[in-house]
Write a structure and sequence with these properties.
The chain has a single domain (about 15-425), classed as Orthogonal Bundle (Cytochrome p450), CATH 1.10.630.10. Helix content is about 45%, strand content about 10%. The chain has helices at about 15-20, 25-35, 50-55, 85-90, 110-120, 125-145, 150-170, 175-185, 205-220, 225-230, 240-275, 275-285, 290-300, 330-335, 370-385, 395, and strands spanning about 35-40, 45, 65, 150, 305-310, 315, 320, 325-330, 385-390, 405, 415-420, 420-425. Strand 6 (about 315) and strand 7 (about 320) form a beta hairpin. Helix 6 (about 125-145) packs parallel to helix 15 (about 370-385), helix 9 (about 205-220) packs across helix 10 (about 225-230) and helix 11 (about 240-275) packs parallel to helix 15. It is globular, with a radius of gyration of 22 Å. The two termini are about 40 Å apart. The model has no long low-confidence stretch (mean pLDDT about 90).
Length: about 425
Protein backbone atom coordinates (compact mmCIF):
# COMPACT_ATOMS: atom_id res chain seq x y z
CA UNK A 1 0.00 0.00 0.00
CA UNK A 2 1.10 3.53 -0.67
CA UNK A 3 1.97 5.30 2.59
CA UNK A 4 1.71 8.78 1.08
CA UNK A 5 -0.58 10.90 3.23
CA UNK A 6 -3.13 12.84 1.26
CA UNK A 7 -5.91 15.24 2.11
CA UNK A 8 -8.88 14.35 -0.11
CA UNK A 9 -10.55 17.67 0.69
CA UNK A 10 -7.63 19.44 -1.01
CA UNK A 11 -7.72 17.30 -4.17
CA UNK A 12 -10.01 17.75 -7.17
CA UNK A 13 -9.92 14.18 -8.44
CA UNK A 14 -11.49 15.21 -11.74
CA UNK A 15 -8.95 17.87 -12.75
CA UNK A 16 -5.73 17.14 -10.85
CA UNK A 17 -3.06 16.18 -13.40
CA UNK A 18 -0.71 14.63 -10.83
CA UNK A 19 -3.44 12.36 -9.49
CA UNK A 20 -4.45 11.40 -13.03
CA UNK A 21 -0.86 10.39 -13.82
CA UNK A 22 -0.43 8.40 -10.62
CA UNK A 23 -3.66 7.48 -8.87
CA UNK A 24 -2.20 4.80 -6.58
CA UNK A 25 -1.70 7.06 -3.49
CA UNK A 26 -5.22 8.49 -3.87
CA UNK A 27 -6.79 5.06 -4.41
CA UNK A 28 -4.93 3.51 -1.46
CA UNK A 29 -5.88 6.32 0.90
CA UNK A 30 -9.53 6.35 -0.14
CA UNK A 31 -10.10 2.59 -0.03
CA UNK A 32 -8.47 2.45 3.42
CA UNK A 33 -10.15 5.52 4.93
CA UNK A 34 -13.10 6.65 2.80
CA UNK A 35 -14.52 3.78 0.71
CA UNK A 36 -17.51 6.05 0.12
CA UNK A 37 -16.78 9.76 0.05
CA UNK A 38 -18.85 12.82 -0.86
CA UNK A 39 -16.48 15.38 -2.32
CA UNK A 40 -17.59 18.97 -1.81
CA UNK A 41 -16.79 20.78 -5.07
CA UNK A 42 -19.31 18.98 -7.33
CA UNK A 43 -21.24 16.96 -4.74
CA UNK A 44 -20.17 13.69 -6.38
CA UNK A 45 -20.19 10.59 -4.19
CA UNK A 46 -16.96 8.67 -4.94
CA UNK A 47 -17.05 4.91 -4.32
CA UNK A 48 -13.66 3.17 -4.04
CA UNK A 49 -14.44 0.26 -1.69
CA UNK A 50 -14.85 -3.19 -3.24
CA UNK A 51 -18.00 -4.32 -1.44
CA UNK A 52 -19.52 -0.87 -1.78
CA UNK A 53 -18.87 -0.94 -5.53
CA UNK A 54 -20.65 -4.27 -5.81
CA UNK A 55 -23.71 -2.75 -4.13
CA UNK A 56 -23.85 -0.15 -6.89
CA UNK A 57 -23.28 -2.66 -9.69
CA UNK A 58 -25.97 -5.03 -8.49
CA UNK A 59 -28.76 -2.48 -8.07
CA UNK A 60 -29.57 -0.90 -11.44
CA UNK A 61 -33.06 -0.20 -10.10
CA UNK A 62 -31.38 2.36 -7.79
CA UNK A 63 -28.34 3.48 -9.78
CA UNK A 64 -28.99 4.49 -13.40
CA UNK A 65 -26.21 4.21 -16.01
CA UNK A 66 -27.66 7.04 -18.10
CA UNK A 67 -24.81 9.41 -17.15
CA UNK A 68 -22.13 6.71 -17.34
CA UNK A 69 -19.93 8.50 -19.88
CA UNK A 70 -20.61 12.01 -18.55
CA UNK A 71 -18.68 14.05 -16.04
CA UNK A 72 -18.93 15.29 -12.45
CA UNK A 73 -20.99 18.33 -13.51
CA UNK A 74 -24.52 17.28 -14.44
CA UNK A 75 -27.17 19.78 -15.46
CA UNK A 76 -30.37 17.78 -15.33
CA UNK A 77 -32.79 18.88 -18.06
CA UNK A 78 -35.74 18.75 -15.66
CA UNK A 79 -36.71 19.91 -12.20
CA UNK A 80 -35.97 17.46 -9.41
CA UNK A 81 -39.43 16.58 -8.15
CA UNK A 82 -40.83 13.39 -6.70
CA UNK A 83 -39.05 10.46 -5.12
CA UNK A 84 -38.40 8.36 -8.24
CA UNK A 85 -36.63 9.70 -11.36
CA UNK A 86 -36.86 6.52 -13.42
CA UNK A 87 -39.46 7.72 -15.91
CA UNK A 88 -38.08 11.26 -16.10
CA UNK A 89 -34.60 10.01 -16.99
CA UNK A 90 -35.93 7.98 -19.92
CA UNK A 91 -38.17 10.85 -21.00
CA UNK A 92 -35.12 13.14 -21.24
CA UNK A 93 -32.58 10.51 -22.34
CA UNK A 94 -31.66 12.45 -25.48
CA UNK A 95 -30.02 15.15 -23.32
CA UNK A 96 -27.36 12.78 -21.94
CA UNK A 97 -24.02 12.01 -23.65
CA UNK A 98 -23.76 8.74 -25.60
CA UNK A 99 -27.47 8.23 -24.89
CA UNK A 100 -27.90 5.75 -27.76
CA UNK A 101 -25.17 3.39 -26.55
CA UNK A 102 -25.97 0.25 -24.59
CA UNK A 103 -23.55 1.19 -21.81
CA UNK A 104 -25.95 3.99 -20.82
CA UNK A 105 -29.12 1.86 -20.97
CA UNK A 106 -31.12 0.72 -17.96
CA UNK A 107 -33.57 -2.20 -17.83
CA UNK A 108 -35.81 -3.09 -19.57
CA UNK A 109 -34.23 -1.45 -22.65
CA UNK A 110 -30.80 -2.72 -21.59
CA UNK A 111 -32.09 -6.27 -21.20
CA UNK A 112 -33.34 -6.45 -24.81
CA UNK A 113 -30.23 -4.92 -26.36
CA UNK A 114 -27.86 -6.95 -24.18
CA UNK A 115 -29.52 -10.16 -25.40
CA UNK A 116 -28.96 -9.00 -28.98
CA UNK A 117 -25.32 -8.22 -28.24
CA UNK A 118 -24.62 -11.55 -26.59
CA UNK A 119 -25.91 -13.27 -29.71
CA UNK A 120 -22.91 -11.76 -31.53
CA UNK A 121 -20.31 -12.86 -28.95
CA UNK A 122 -21.05 -16.52 -28.49
CA UNK A 123 -18.39 -18.96 -27.20
CA UNK A 124 -18.44 -20.64 -30.62
CA UNK A 125 -17.76 -17.36 -32.41
CA UNK A 126 -14.99 -16.43 -29.95
CA UNK A 127 -13.34 -19.81 -30.56
CA UNK A 128 -13.51 -19.29 -34.32
CA UNK A 129 -11.93 -15.85 -33.82
CA UNK A 130 -8.82 -17.27 -32.09
CA UNK A 131 -6.99 -18.33 -35.26
CA UNK A 132 -7.39 -14.84 -36.68
CA UNK A 133 -5.94 -13.36 -33.48
CA UNK A 134 -2.88 -15.62 -33.67
CA UNK A 135 -2.22 -14.98 -37.35
CA UNK A 136 -2.76 -11.23 -37.03
CA UNK A 137 -0.40 -10.99 -34.04
CA UNK A 138 2.38 -12.61 -36.07
CA UNK A 139 1.60 -10.49 -39.12
CA UNK A 140 1.98 -7.26 -37.15
CA UNK A 141 5.10 -8.50 -35.33
CA UNK A 142 6.63 -9.37 -38.71
CA UNK A 143 6.48 -5.64 -39.37
CA UNK A 144 7.66 -4.40 -35.96
CA UNK A 145 10.37 -6.73 -34.72
CA UNK A 146 12.94 -6.53 -37.56
CA UNK A 147 13.23 -2.77 -36.95
CA UNK A 148 14.33 -3.42 -33.36
CA UNK A 149 12.13 -0.66 -32.01
CA UNK A 150 8.63 0.72 -32.41
CA UNK A 151 5.90 2.85 -30.93
CA UNK A 152 3.63 0.09 -29.63
CA UNK A 153 0.22 1.73 -29.03
CA UNK A 154 -0.31 2.98 -32.59
CA UNK A 155 2.01 0.54 -34.32
CA UNK A 156 0.36 -2.56 -32.87
CA UNK A 157 -2.34 -2.29 -30.19
CA UNK A 158 -4.81 0.07 -31.90
CA UNK A 159 -4.76 -1.79 -35.20
CA UNK A 160 -4.88 -5.20 -33.53
CA UNK A 161 -7.90 -4.34 -31.35
CA UNK A 162 -9.85 -2.95 -34.31
CA UNK A 163 -9.24 -5.98 -36.49
CA UNK A 164 -10.05 -8.40 -33.65
CA UNK A 165 -13.57 -6.94 -33.40
CA UNK A 166 -13.89 -6.68 -37.19
CA UNK A 167 -13.21 -10.40 -37.56
CA UNK A 168 -15.54 -11.27 -34.68
CA UNK A 169 -18.36 -9.43 -36.46
CA UNK A 170 -17.53 -10.95 -39.83
CA UNK A 171 -16.48 -7.71 -41.50
CA UNK A 172 -14.90 -8.67 -44.86
CA UNK A 173 -11.10 -8.39 -44.88
CA UNK A 174 -11.36 -6.05 -47.84
CA UNK A 175 -12.93 -3.51 -45.45
CA UNK A 176 -10.28 -3.86 -42.70
CA UNK A 177 -8.02 -1.06 -44.00
CA UNK A 178 -11.04 1.28 -44.07
CA UNK A 179 -11.84 0.48 -40.43
CA UNK A 180 -8.25 1.13 -39.33
CA UNK A 181 -8.22 4.45 -41.14
CA UNK A 182 -11.59 5.39 -39.63
CA UNK A 183 -10.97 4.31 -36.04
CA UNK A 184 -7.24 4.44 -35.33
CA UNK A 185 -7.34 8.21 -34.98
CA UNK A 186 -6.70 10.59 -32.14
CA UNK A 187 -9.72 12.29 -30.61
CA UNK A 188 -11.05 13.80 -27.37
CA UNK A 189 -10.40 11.64 -24.30
CA UNK A 190 -13.38 10.69 -22.17
CA UNK A 191 -12.83 11.90 -18.62
CA UNK A 192 -10.45 14.64 -19.72
CA UNK A 193 -9.15 16.95 -17.02
CA UNK A 194 -10.78 20.01 -18.57
CA UNK A 195 -14.18 18.42 -17.88
CA UNK A 196 -15.22 18.74 -21.50
CA UNK A 197 -18.21 16.51 -22.15
CA UNK A 198 -18.62 15.28 -25.68
CA UNK A 199 -22.24 15.23 -26.83
CA UNK A 200 -21.23 14.14 -30.30
CA UNK A 201 -21.35 10.41 -30.68
CA UNK A 202 -18.03 9.51 -32.30
CA UNK A 203 -19.36 6.10 -33.26
CA UNK A 204 -21.86 7.57 -35.69
CA UNK A 205 -19.19 7.21 -38.37
CA UNK A 206 -19.75 3.47 -38.23
CA UNK A 207 -23.53 3.46 -38.17
CA UNK A 208 -23.93 4.00 -41.91
CA UNK A 209 -21.53 1.17 -42.72
CA UNK A 210 -23.35 -1.41 -40.59
CA UNK A 211 -26.84 -0.24 -41.55
CA UNK A 212 -25.95 -0.79 -45.21
CA UNK A 213 -24.56 -4.27 -44.49
CA UNK A 214 -27.59 -5.27 -42.40
CA UNK A 215 -30.06 -4.09 -45.03
CA UNK A 216 -28.09 -5.94 -47.74
CA UNK A 217 -28.09 -9.20 -45.74
CA UNK A 218 -31.79 -8.95 -44.88
CA UNK A 219 -32.62 -8.55 -48.55
CA UNK A 220 -30.18 -11.25 -49.70
CA UNK A 221 -29.18 -13.57 -46.84
CA UNK A 222 -25.95 -15.56 -47.15
CA UNK A 223 -24.16 -17.96 -44.80
CA UNK A 224 -21.83 -15.32 -43.30
CA UNK A 225 -21.66 -13.80 -39.82
CA UNK A 226 -23.10 -10.47 -40.95
CA UNK A 227 -26.24 -12.29 -42.04
CA UNK A 228 -26.55 -13.81 -38.58
CA UNK A 229 -26.23 -10.31 -37.13
CA UNK A 230 -28.81 -8.93 -39.57
CA UNK A 231 -31.39 -11.60 -38.73
CA UNK A 232 -30.90 -11.62 -34.94
CA UNK A 233 -34.01 -10.77 -32.93
CA UNK A 234 -34.88 -9.32 -29.56
CA UNK A 235 -35.94 -11.83 -26.84
CA UNK A 236 -39.61 -11.32 -27.77
CA UNK A 237 -38.89 -12.37 -31.36
CA UNK A 238 -39.17 -8.93 -32.96
CA UNK A 239 -36.61 -7.80 -35.53
CA UNK A 240 -34.62 -4.75 -34.40
CA UNK A 241 -34.29 -1.68 -36.54
CA UNK A 242 -30.98 -1.74 -38.47
CA UNK A 243 -29.78 1.27 -36.47
CA UNK A 244 -30.17 -0.69 -33.21
CA UNK A 245 -27.90 -3.46 -34.50
CA UNK A 246 -25.47 -0.93 -35.97
CA UNK A 247 -25.13 0.82 -32.60
CA UNK A 248 -24.34 -2.44 -30.81
CA UNK A 249 -21.76 -3.47 -33.42
CA UNK A 250 -20.15 -0.03 -33.30
CA UNK A 251 -19.99 -0.08 -29.52
CA UNK A 252 -17.82 -3.17 -29.63
CA UNK A 253 -15.14 -1.19 -31.46
CA UNK A 254 -15.27 1.56 -28.83
CA UNK A 255 -15.00 -0.98 -26.01
CA UNK A 256 -11.98 -2.57 -27.67
CA UNK A 257 -10.21 0.75 -27.92
CA UNK A 258 -10.91 1.61 -24.29
CA UNK A 259 -9.88 -1.66 -22.71
CA UNK A 260 -7.75 -3.91 -24.91
CA UNK A 261 -5.45 -1.23 -26.28
CA UNK A 262 -4.63 0.09 -22.84
CA UNK A 263 -4.41 -3.38 -21.31
CA UNK A 264 -1.77 -4.24 -23.91
CA UNK A 265 0.11 -0.99 -23.32
CA UNK A 266 0.08 -1.27 -19.52
CA UNK A 267 1.16 -4.92 -19.71
CA UNK A 268 4.08 -4.22 -22.05
CA UNK A 269 5.23 -1.23 -19.99
CA UNK A 270 5.28 -3.38 -16.85
CA UNK A 271 7.14 -6.26 -18.54
CA UNK A 272 9.67 -3.91 -20.13
CA UNK A 273 10.31 -2.32 -16.74
CA UNK A 274 10.58 -5.61 -14.84
CA UNK A 275 13.07 -7.89 -16.61
CA UNK A 276 12.93 -10.77 -14.06
CA UNK A 277 9.14 -10.88 -14.48
CA UNK A 278 9.54 -10.75 -18.26
CA UNK A 279 12.02 -13.64 -18.15
CA UNK A 280 9.68 -15.63 -15.90
CA UNK A 281 6.79 -15.28 -18.35
CA UNK A 282 9.03 -16.05 -21.32
CA UNK A 283 10.15 -19.27 -19.63
CA UNK A 284 6.61 -20.16 -18.59
CA UNK A 285 4.03 -18.67 -20.93
CA UNK A 286 1.30 -20.54 -19.05
CA UNK A 287 1.57 -17.73 -16.49
CA UNK A 288 0.46 -15.09 -19.00
CA UNK A 289 -3.30 -15.33 -18.20
CA UNK A 290 -2.53 -14.90 -14.47
CA UNK A 291 -0.24 -11.98 -15.27
CA UNK A 292 -3.04 -10.28 -17.23
CA UNK A 293 -5.54 -10.69 -14.38
CA UNK A 294 -3.08 -9.14 -11.93
CA UNK A 295 -2.49 -6.23 -14.32
CA UNK A 296 -6.25 -5.71 -14.53
CA UNK A 297 -6.50 -5.76 -10.73
CA UNK A 298 -3.74 -3.31 -9.97
CA UNK A 299 -3.90 -1.06 -13.07
CA UNK A 300 -7.41 -1.29 -14.50
CA UNK A 301 -7.50 0.47 -17.92
CA UNK A 302 -10.91 1.91 -17.09
CA UNK A 303 -10.70 3.48 -13.66
CA UNK A 304 -14.38 4.10 -13.25
CA UNK A 305 -17.66 5.41 -14.56
CA UNK A 306 -20.62 7.41 -13.36
CA UNK A 307 -24.02 6.47 -12.08
CA UNK A 308 -27.07 8.55 -11.09
CA UNK A 309 -29.41 7.69 -8.26
CA UNK A 310 -33.02 7.23 -9.36
CA UNK A 311 -34.39 7.01 -5.83
CA UNK A 312 -33.24 7.86 -2.32
CA UNK A 313 -30.76 5.37 -0.94
CA UNK A 314 -27.79 5.06 1.39
CA UNK A 315 -24.35 3.57 0.98
CA UNK A 316 -21.29 3.54 3.21
CA UNK A 317 -23.15 5.53 5.86
CA UNK A 318 -24.08 8.34 3.46
CA UNK A 319 -27.64 9.22 2.48
CA UNK A 320 -28.06 9.87 -1.25
CA UNK A 321 -31.02 11.83 -2.61
CA UNK A 322 -32.52 11.09 -6.05
CA UNK A 323 -30.37 12.77 -8.70
CA UNK A 324 -27.05 12.24 -6.88
CA UNK A 325 -24.04 11.70 -9.16
CA UNK A 326 -21.95 8.68 -8.12
CA UNK A 327 -18.41 8.01 -9.38
CA UNK A 328 -17.77 4.28 -9.26
CA UNK A 329 -13.98 3.77 -9.14
CA UNK A 330 -13.60 0.04 -9.73
CA UNK A 331 -9.93 0.68 -10.53
CA UNK A 332 -9.50 1.57 -6.88
CA UNK A 333 -11.54 -1.41 -5.69
CA UNK A 334 -8.79 -3.71 -6.97
CA UNK A 335 -6.52 -2.24 -4.30
CA UNK A 336 -8.95 -2.80 -1.41
CA UNK A 337 -7.00 -4.53 1.40
CA UNK A 338 -10.24 -6.02 2.73
CA UNK A 339 -10.30 -8.29 -0.34
CA UNK A 340 -6.71 -8.47 -1.65
CA UNK A 341 -3.72 -9.18 0.62
CA UNK A 342 -0.85 -6.70 0.15
CA UNK A 343 -2.85 -5.05 -2.64
CA UNK A 344 -0.07 -2.71 -3.83
CA UNK A 345 2.25 -5.69 -4.45
CA UNK A 346 2.22 -7.14 -7.95
CA UNK A 347 1.92 -10.92 -7.52
CA UNK A 348 1.66 -12.90 -10.73
CA UNK A 349 0.52 -15.92 -8.70
CA UNK A 350 -2.17 -14.10 -6.70
CA UNK A 351 -4.96 -16.62 -6.16
CA UNK A 352 -7.89 -14.22 -6.24
CA UNK A 353 -6.67 -11.67 -8.81
CA UNK A 354 -9.57 -12.55 -11.11
CA UNK A 355 -11.98 -11.13 -8.53
CA UNK A 356 -11.03 -7.66 -9.76
CA UNK A 357 -13.77 -5.39 -11.06
CA UNK A 358 -11.92 -4.14 -14.14
CA UNK A 359 -14.65 -5.50 -16.41
CA UNK A 360 -17.46 -4.45 -14.09
CA UNK A 361 -20.12 -6.66 -12.56
CA UNK A 362 -23.84 -7.17 -12.80
CA UNK A 363 -25.89 -6.40 -15.90
CA UNK A 364 -23.17 -4.18 -17.35
CA UNK A 365 -20.31 -6.68 -17.07
CA UNK A 366 -18.16 -6.09 -20.15
CA UNK A 367 -19.40 -8.56 -22.79
CA UNK A 368 -16.11 -8.26 -24.65
CA UNK A 369 -14.00 -9.37 -21.68
CA UNK A 370 -13.25 -12.84 -23.15
CA UNK A 371 -12.12 -11.21 -26.40
CA UNK A 372 -9.93 -8.68 -24.57
CA UNK A 373 -8.29 -11.47 -22.58
CA UNK A 374 -7.69 -13.55 -25.70
CA UNK A 375 -6.14 -10.60 -27.54
CA UNK A 376 -3.80 -9.92 -24.63
CA UNK A 377 -2.79 -13.57 -24.21
CA UNK A 378 -2.01 -14.16 -27.90
CA UNK A 379 -0.15 -10.85 -28.25
CA UNK A 380 2.04 -11.31 -25.18
CA UNK A 381 2.74 -14.94 -25.91
CA UNK A 382 3.97 -14.27 -29.44
CA UNK A 383 5.96 -11.21 -28.37
CA UNK A 384 7.74 -13.19 -25.67
CA UNK A 385 8.28 -16.24 -27.86
CA UNK A 386 9.76 -14.16 -30.68
CA UNK A 387 12.07 -11.98 -28.58
CA UNK A 388 14.94 -12.41 -26.15
CA UNK A 389 14.37 -9.03 -24.54
CA UNK A 390 11.84 -6.18 -24.60
CA UNK A 391 12.90 -2.84 -23.12
CA UNK A 392 11.65 0.69 -22.78
CA UNK A 393 13.27 3.18 -25.14
CA UNK A 394 15.48 5.43 -23.01
CA UNK A 395 15.44 7.94 -25.85
CA UNK A 396 11.70 8.46 -25.36
CA UNK A 397 11.10 7.46 -21.73
CA UNK A 398 14.38 8.31 -20.02
CA UNK A 399 16.63 6.03 -17.95
CA UNK A 400 15.45 3.52 -15.34
CA UNK A 401 14.53 5.35 -12.14
CA UNK A 402 13.75 8.55 -13.98
CA UNK A 403 11.15 7.54 -16.54
CA UNK A 404 9.05 9.96 -18.56
CA UNK A 405 5.61 8.63 -19.47
CA UNK A 406 3.13 9.88 -22.02
CA UNK A 407 -0.07 8.83 -20.26
CA UNK A 408 -3.69 9.67 -20.96
CA UNK A 409 -4.74 12.90 -19.20
CA UNK A 410 -7.93 11.37 -17.85
CA UNK A 411 -9.57 10.58 -14.55
CA UNK A 412 -11.51 7.73 -16.21
CA UNK A 413 -8.77 5.92 -18.06
CA UNK A 414 -5.36 4.55 -17.20
CA UNK A 415 -3.14 4.08 -20.20
CA UNK A 416 -0.42 5.30 -22.50
CA UNK A 417 -0.81 7.73 -25.38
CA UNK A 418 2.46 6.40 -26.73
CA UNK A 419 4.80 3.64 -25.61
CA UNK A 420 8.21 3.27 -27.25
CA UNK A 421 9.82 -0.16 -26.98
CA UNK A 422 13.01 -1.77 -28.20
CA UNK A 423 13.23 -5.45 -29.10
CA UNK A 424 15.99 -8.02 -29.27
CA UNK A 425 14.56 -10.52 -31.70
CA UNK A 426 15.16 -14.19 -30.95
CA UNK A 427 17.82 -15.65 -33.22
CA UNK A 428 16.41 -17.95 -35.85
CA UNK A 429 12.89 -16.59 -35.29
Amino acid sequence: MSTVEIDPTAIDFFTDAEVAENTAPYFDHMTANHPVWRESKYGVVIVTGYEEALKVYHHPEIYSSINRTGGPVLDLPFELVGDDLTELLEQYREHFPQNDQIVTFDPPMHTDHRALLMGLITPKRLKENEEFLKVTADRFLDELLPAGQSEFIWGYAKRYAILAVADLLGVPESDHPMLIELLATKGPVLGNLKLQTSHHNTLERLYGYFIEKIEERRANPTEDILTGMALATFPDGTLPEPIDVARIASNLFAAGNETTVQLLGISLARLAEDQPLQDLLRENTALIPKFIEEVLRIEAPIRGSFRLTKVATSIGGLDLAPGTVVMLLHGAAGRDARVFDNPAEFDVNRANARQHLAFGRGIHTCPGAPLARAEAVFSLRRLLERTERIELSEEHHGPAGDRRWDVMPSYKFRGHNTLHLTYTEREGN
